[in-house]
Amino acid sequence: MTFPVVEAEDMPDIAANSLSVAFGDFNRGYLVVDRQGVNVLRDPYSAKPYVLFYTTKRVGGGVQDFDAIKLLKFST
């Protein structure tokens, strides 16, 4: 069986007691939540003669199946 390998720069370097390698089915184990819609607030007063727009979007995520992803802990 073969598995794709991805190098993530955000993972910590290999050191004592570090969790530097993750293995698993991330499609099953992690859920990304993307709320529909973008909120736009029009501000015509702050930067005359221009109009400012403030936009926000709600996104989030989290582990939904802890058995699908495992971390390898290194020792000294």
From TrEMBL:
Principal subcellular localization: virion
Signal peptide boundaries: none
Domain (Phage capsid-like C-terminal) ranges: 3-74
InterPro entries: Phage_capsid, Phage_capsid-like_C
Coiled-coil segments: none
TM stretches of this protein: none
Localization per record: Virion
Lineage: superkingdom: Bacteria
Protein name as annotated: Phage capsid family protein
Source taxonomy: Bacteria, Pseudomonadati, Pseudomonadota, Alphaproteobacteria, Hyphomicrobiales
